[in-house]
Amino acid sequence: MKKSFGLLVGAALIAISGQVAANEAEEVGAKIYDRAFGRGCGACHDIASNPQLKELIKAGKLPKDQFSKVLKEGKNGMPKAVEAIMAVGPVKKANMTEDQAIDAVYTYLSK
Ligand code: HEC
């Protein structure tokens, strides 16, 4: 009985810490969107004539591999963004890898 209670608490803690990690990533993602390139991704993407990232992702029209490729390689008017993303303070603080940081913006934009 005692042992199974311990297991239950352990499982709950693991679930909670997973949740915290996901929320943290989303918060860092929001900071990236607001701060990358100094003026944020929104400086261009909140303008209606540029791709509306949230809408595209929610509609299933911008899969993560395509998102990641554009950030790494750029695309026409879209500058390469990985360096700018890695320079955002909270990304450095969280010690994220490039892929984790890209995931974080994608997670933020998926909400
Ligand atoms: C200087 C303006 C500018 C900034 C800053 C910018 N983008 Fe873009 N982005 C564009 C333009 C313009 C396009 C459309 C390129 C094309 O398809 O010709 C684009 C395209 C994209 C695409 C591809 C969309 C698709 O449907 O293939 C992604 C993903 C993207 N941007 C993400 C970001 C993220 C994330 C940031 C911030 C880290 C960012 N952009 C910052 C201008 C910008």
TrEMBL record:
<protein>
    <recommendedName>
        <fullName>Cytochrome c domain-containing protein</fullName>
    </recommendedName>
</protein>
<dbReference type="GO" id="GO:0046872">
    <property type="term" value="F:metal ion binding"/>
</dbReference>
<feature type="domain" description="Cytochrome c">
    <location>
        <begin position="24"/>
        <end position="111"/>
    </location>
</feature>
<feature type="signal peptide">
    <location>
        <begin position="1"/>
        <end position="22"/>
    </location>
</feature>
<dbReference type="InterPro" id="IPR009056">
    <property type="entry name" value="Cyt_c-like_dom"/>
</dbReference>
<dbReference type="GO" id="GO:0020037">
    <property type="term" value="F:heme binding"/>
</dbReference>
<keyword id="KW-0349">Heme</keyword>
<dbReference type="InterPro" id="IPR036909">
    <property type="entry name" value="Cyt_c-like_dom_sf"/>
</dbReference>
<dbReference type="Pfam" id="PF00034">
    <property type="entry name" value="Cytochrom_C"/>
</dbReference>
<keyword id="KW-0732">Signal</keyword>
<keyword id="KW-0408">Iron</keyword>
<dbReference type="GO" id="GO:0009055">
    <property type="term" value="F:electron transfer activity"/>
</dbReference>
<keyword id="KW-0479">Metal-binding</keyword>
